[in-house]
Write a structure and sequence with these properties.
502 residues, alpha+beta, Outer membrane efflux proteins (OEP), 6-stranded antiparallel β-sheet, two-stranded parallel ribbon, 61% helix, disordered N terminus
Length: 502
């Protein structure tokens, strides 16, 4: 009986142990999965910024608005169908009626009128006119001693309206609006390129802060060892108290630098998370950036790429066309203008709806309205001269902006070429300074150099390391800035598209 009791107790303990392990596993694994750090390279940061950042979302919404505006512009040149009418229109009043003998009689009128019109209009961009087709139906009910109603129909009316010798705004819109849409496309790509530059800066902010923390932790460990070694030597009378105090001061400064470096790192990480739209508690691991890549960028080629891809060049074309449009409008408003309107159709009337469609009669309308400015006190000439002056000012302004833009691109390409060489030199200097510090530390350990030489070597190491990382940052930021200025990826040898099909 005791044996069975022992087996039962053992089974219960095994079951409880299994349940405890299972509970711990279910508790720890999700927490571990949530805390898994996200590793980010420079390209990862840029890709996430261009897809998830608030700045990229704003750029996409701006382009979406421009895209719908362009669709609205194109739709206005397609046929439009409209239905309009008035039902009912009640009139109960005393009106003056001209009689056959020339006298006027005041007659009480009680009537109810309704009308309906279905029309199709088609703009004519090349001429500035409009073609229309319509079908109309109307009814009038007269109230008095007896009620009488009449129907009037125009089953089909075809006509057109054509301005003559007038400014044709549709012709200019057909030249300007497609350019405006291309400007919006390129501005969207350029906004994403700006996002890439900002993301690269944020990435290097975190990377440099991370390197500063690592360097500060290394310095604290090294200086702590040096301080303990100096303390032992001071107790043996091998160094002066000044050297001991100097080593202690350097250790305290190193600890302060470590505290400041950690705060700067946390701030840089949070700035990056905000830019990438990442959770506040997401752990990040920054993968060290690649060393400078070798890519030959000719400054003249960079300028040519900017001319081909930048939105600002299309904006210059839009400004030129707009100045020409203002001149054309000012000239057209100075001279003779006319409006031609013609239509042909069928119409009929009757006391019944069916009667209004039996044997319809021809209907023709034709009219020409004109306007001849005789004297406007010089207003027309003043508007024309103003438009001509504005065009000249626009041309000079565009020429200056173009020169400044291309100069920026040219010197950015030169700076990028120089940074390629500087990165290699900074990397070599960093290696030499690190090696020098190791030699100095070993020599101080065996007592062949004093502490001042050791700390000089340490400062040179830190300065060389910071200089290399900063130069590497300037190299990559310069590359992405050059991409923004040219909208061209020189590594892939293709224009930037921002995900849009060219």
């Amino acid at each position: 009986m005791s044996l069975l009791t022992s087996f039962a107790a053992l089974a219960m303990r095994s079951e409880m142990r299994f349940l405890l392990v299972l509970a711990l596993t279910l508790t720890v694994l999700p927490a571990w999965a949530q805390q898994a750090p996200l590793q980010l390279t420079l390209q990862d940061v840029i890709a996430r910024a261009q897809s998830n950042s608030p700045a990229a979302e704003i750029a996409r919404l701006e382009f979406e608005a421009a895209r719908w505006d362009f669709r609205s512009y194109k739709a206005q040149y397609l046929p439009s169908i409209s239905l309009d009418g008035n039902a009912p229109g009640l009139e109960r009043a005393i009106n003056s009626i001209d009689q056959d003998d020339g006298t006027v009689a005041y007659v009480s009128r009680n009537q109810l009128s309704s009308d309906l019109n279905l029309g199709i209009t088609q703009p004519l961009p090349f001429t500035g006119g409009e073609l229309f087709i319509s079908s109309q139906l109307g009814r009038i009910d007269l109230f008095g001693n007896t009620r009488t109603n009449y129907w009037q129909s125009s089953p089909l009316v075809v006509g057109f309206v054509q301005p003559l010798f007038q400014f044709n705004d549709m012709k200019w819109e057909r030249r300007i609006e497609p350019l405006q849409y291309k400007v919006a496309q390129r501005e969207f790509v350029e906004n994403l390129a700006v996002t890439a530059v900002d993301a690269a800066n944020l990435f290097f902010n975190v990377y440099i802060a991370q390197m500063n923390v690592d360097r500060a932790e290394f310095n604290v460990a090294v200086n702590d060892t040096i301080y303990n070694l100096s303390t032992g030597r001071f107790e043996l009378g091998k160094i002066a108290e000044n050297d001991l105090l100097q080593s202690e001061l350097v250790l305290l400064n190193a600890r302060t630098d470590l505290s400041n470096a950690r705060i700067a790192y946390d701030r840089a990480v949070q700035d990056l998370k905000i830019a990438l739209n990442l959770p506040y508690d997401q752990d990040l691991v920054i993968v060290p950036p690649l060393a400078a890549v070798q890519v030959e960028i000719d400054p003249a080629e960079a300028v040519q790429r900017a001319r081909e891809n930048r939105a600002v060049y299309l904006q210059m074309d839009v400004r030129r066309l707009d100045a020409e449009r203002q001149i054309a409008q000012a000239r057209s408003e100075r001279g003779f203008s006319a409006n031609l309107r013609a239509s042909y159709g069928l119409n009929q009337s009757g006391v019944g709806l069916r009667d209004a469609y039996i044997n319809p009669l021809n209907q023709q309308r034709f009219s020409v309205g004109f306007n001849v400015p005789l004297y406007s006190w010089g207003r027309g000439r003043a508007e024309l001269e103003s438009a001509l002056a504005q065009q000249e000012q626009t041309q000079k302004s565009i020429a200056l902006e173009r020169e400044e833009l291309e100069q920026d691109v040219y010197f950015e390409a030169l700076q990028f070429r120089q940074l390629q060489q500087q990165v290699a030199l900074a990397a070599k200097a960093d290696t030499i300074a690190a090696r020098r510090f190791e030699v100095a530390r070993n020599r101080y350990t065996i007592g062949t150099i004093d502490i001042t030489d050791l700390f000089d070597a340490q400062q040179a190491k830190d300065s060389a390391s910071q200089a290399y990382i900063q130069t590497l940052r300037e190299f990559w930021v310069s590359y992405f800035r050059l991409r923004r200025l040219t909208l061209y990826d020189f590594l892939l040898d293709q224009p930037l598209t921002g995900g849009m099909v060219q």
